[in-house]
């Protein structure tokens, strides 16, 4: 009798591979969106009133020696100002990230360069005090 023949169960691998590939792509896309920018200065100053900022269009990093890094390119204040003049001032958001030991004069120089370029939306990157 063939009706009661016991068939050996099979595990279908192709649908499982499709699901695993979909999950891998999903987690990669989520991980990429979680990383806002690379290369932030290691130790940001702290603030008890810090707020999350929207994703930045331009991130300016200030180091203790006074050097500026914008989109992983070393710049001077004059070249930063020239680059900011090319961007539309009403839609450009600049976030300044500096080490805790950066002087107020260096910070003020970068903010002045932004303001002379017509940028009005300037944010300072800090870390939250817990």
Summarize this entry quickly:
The protein is an alpha/beta fold and 130 residues long. The protein has helices at 14-34, 77-86, 104-116; strands at 46-47, 58-62, 68-70, 73-75, 93-98, 121-124, 127-128.
Describe the structure.
With 130 residues, the protein is α/β, with parallel strands linked by helices. It has a domain at 46-128: Nucleotidyltransferase, domain 5 (2-Layer Sandwich). 34% of the residues lie in helices and 19% in strands. The protein contains three helices and seven strands, in the order H-E-E-E-E-H-E-H-E-E. It has helices at residues 14-34, 77-86, 104-116; strands at residues 46-47, 58-62, 68-70, 73-75, 93-98, 121-124, 127-128. The strands form two sheets. A five-stranded mixed β-sheet has the order 4-3-2-5-6. A two-stranded parallel sheet has the order 1-7. Strand 5 (93-98), helix 3 (104-116) and strand 6 (121-124) form a beta-alpha-beta unit. The radius of gyration is 25 Å and the shape is elongated.
How many helices? The count is 3
The strands making up the biggest β-sheet line up spatially as 4-3-2-5-6
User: What is the general shape?
Assistant: elongated
Briefly note the CATH topology name of one domain.
Answer: Nucleotidyltransferase, domain 5
List the helices and strands and how they pair.
Layout lengths: L13 H21 L11 E2 L10 E5 L5 E3 L2 E3 L1 H10 L6 E6 L5 H13 L4 E4 L2 E2 L2
Parallel strand pairs: 1-7, 2-5, 5-6
Antiparallel strand pairs: 2-3, 3-4
Helix pairs in contact: 2-3
């Amino acid at each position: 009798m063939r009706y009661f023949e016991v068939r050996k169960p099979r595990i279908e691998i192709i649908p499982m591979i499709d699901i695993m590939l979909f999950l891998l792509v999903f987690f990669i896309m989520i991980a990429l969106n979680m990383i806002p920018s690379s290369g932030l200065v290691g130790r940001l100053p702290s603030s008890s009133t810090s707020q999350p900022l929207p994703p930045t269009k331009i991130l300016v990093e200030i180091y203790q020696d006074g050097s500026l890094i914008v989109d992983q390119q070393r710049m001077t204040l004059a070249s930063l100002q020239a680059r900011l003049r090319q961007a539309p001032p009403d839609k450009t958001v600049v976030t300044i990230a500096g080490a805790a030991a950066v002087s107020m004069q260096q910070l003020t120089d970068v903010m002045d360069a932004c303001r002379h370029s017509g940028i009005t939306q300037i944010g300072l990157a800090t870390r939250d005090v817990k």
